[in-house]
Amino acid sequence: MTDGAASPTGFLCPGCRSALHPAGLPDGVLTGCADCGGMWIDNKASQAAVRGTLSPAARAFIHRVTTKVPPKKAATSGGYRKAPAPTTRACPECGDALAVRNIPDPPVVVDVCLAHGTYFDRGELSQIAERVDAHAWARYRAAQTAAWQAQYGTGDSGVDQLVYDFTNVLRTL
User: Fold this and answer.
1) Dihedral angle at the C-alpha atoms of 81, 95, 49, 84, nearest 10 degrees?
2) Same domain, residue pair 33 and 82
3) Do 162 and 137 touch, CB atoms closer than 8 A?
4) Does the first or last residue of the chain, that is N or C, have fewer Cβ atoms within 10 Å of its Cβ?
5) Is the pLDDT of residue 72 over 60?
6) Range with the poorest average pLDDT among 6-15, 54-63, 79-88, 109-118
7) How far separated are the first and last CA of the chain, in Å rounded?
8) What pairs with residue 101 in β-bridges?
9) Does residue 6 lie in a domain region?
């Protein structure tokens, strides 16, 4: 694709100014750039990503955009091109400058339009989704341990030892 190329969404990638391509998913507006691997997602989809509730179809789209190099790109440029520095980025919907926000865990810098959505450089949304999944799994494990302890009590009984052993096994996962 070339800079300023026609886009099915009418949006241009904040990262490289190429066309953004939509996923057409119920999670919200998810669009991907075939040139730099960046993703623009609306606020609804951003909230789902942070909550860890993106649909399997949305996760597949994110994976496809951020990890798969289209054959024509691989042949012509060796893969995705590098997006320019974040300071030059604008919202594809309103054209306002995107605010730079640091996400500490994982350490990722994203570009945000509070009114419309968030831009993620190639791989950043996948990193965030993986981290959210890890936190969700840890919360699930803690809840399961608490449920076992509530059901079987605490103390020196054999069941308590089973809960203790079960918890330690979960910690190794």
Assistant:
1) 20
2) yes
3) no
4) C
5) no
6) 79-88
7) 43
8) 110
9) no
